[in-house]
UniProtKB/TrEMBL annotation:
Keywords: DNA-binding, Transcription, Transcription regulation. The gene is pcaQ. This is Pca operon transcription factor PcaQ. The keyword Metal-binding does not apply. Pfam families: HTH_1, LysR_substrate.
């Protein structure tokens, strides 16, 4: 954890002295007296516990610890400047906006809490949330119609031009309504006896579900409804004997509340990374950085960090 005694003025003085190679010129640039900037540098050296600069007739020079610390000090000030510039730019343009694509498991599991957190840290942020398949959302992201997407890592061909930052691992759940006949003998090989809500070919979880069924010797269910729509599944399941194979995050709330029951079937092999997708090489905007803060808070609250 960073020592709270380190202030922005310490970093500004240190980096400006290095830039000017002179305490006198650095003091003039920062509108300080030379004793004041010398005292600020001494405070910083005392806090970090190392000599950062040597003074001589030729000016100042970085010590080994100073050279190491200098890069981080510059990066910290640069990040702060970018953040302030982003907020200033957003203020000139009006209300900050962010367009987020959320795959089904994220839309159900993370987005409600993310929105709650954003309402606290950025109440004026105008958020647009789009849902849909992995191919659809990543296509919108590449085309600049979305700023970021959260969901499962897709096949390599769907990730061209995008960067992916993993957040957590998620598995597929097999769920039914309470009182379903299969609960008396929860064997995955029996799911073909009932309709099955099954991921379509373009769904990111489809390969994981296929791997699970092949490993367990279960044929492709003949009576299947191919969709990853959480809205459809939640509406259809209570009055049906269907078996639903879906990302655990989509039904986490319903399982916790007893509206759906998860079959006690090992699904570890269906685990896949869920992460944040952005356009490769793009600089994060102020609104994206605020979203990242809300996302970090949400992951801690849900125990996913």
């Amino acid at each position: 954890m960073m020592d709270r005694r380190i202030k922005i003025r310490h970093l500004q003085a240190f980096t400006e002295i290095v830039r000017q190679r002179s305490l006198k010129r650095a003091a003039e640039r920062l509108f300080l007296t030379q004793p004041a900037i010398s005292r600020t540098l001494s405070e910083l050296e005392e806090i970090v516990g190392a000599e950062l600069l040597t003074r001589g007739r030729g000016g100042v020079a970085l010590t080994a610890p100073g050279e190491f610390f200098h890069g981080f000090a510059q990066a910290s000030l640069s990040a702060l400047e970018q953040g302030l510039a982003g907020i200033e730019e957003a203020g000139r343009q009006g209300v900050m906006q962010l367009r987020v694509g959320a795959l089904p498991s994220v839309a159900a599991r993370l987005m409600p809490e993310i929105v709650t957190q954003l309402s606290e840290i950025a109440p004026d942020l105008r958020l647009t949330i789009a849902d849909g398949s992995h191919d659809h959302l990543t296509g919108l992201l590449r085309g600049g119609e979305l700023d970021l997407v959260i969901g499962r890592l897709g096949a390599p061909e769907t990730m061209r031009g995008l960067s992916f930052t993993q957040l957590y691992l998620e598995e597929v759940a097999v769920v039914v309504r309470p009182g379903h006949p299969i609960l008396a003998d929860p064997d995955l090989r029996r799911i073909g006896d009932w309709p099955v809500i099954y991921p379509p070919p373009w769904a990111a979880i489809r390969p994981f579900v296929e791997r699970l069924l092949i490993t367990e010797g279960v044929p492709l269910p003949p009576r299947r409804i191919e969709t990853v729509s959480g809205a459809f599944g939640r509406a259809y399941m209570p009055g049906s004997d269907a078996v639903w194979l879906i990302s655990a995050g989509v039904v986490a709330r319903e399982v916790a509340q007893g509206q759906l029951v998860r079959l006690p079937i090992p699904t570890d092999m269906t685990e896949g990374p869920v992460g944040l997708m952005t356009r490769a090489g793009a600089t994060a905007s102020a609104s994206q950085q605020l979203f990242a803060t809300a996302l970090d808070r949400t992951l801690r609250i849900l125990g996913l960090d």
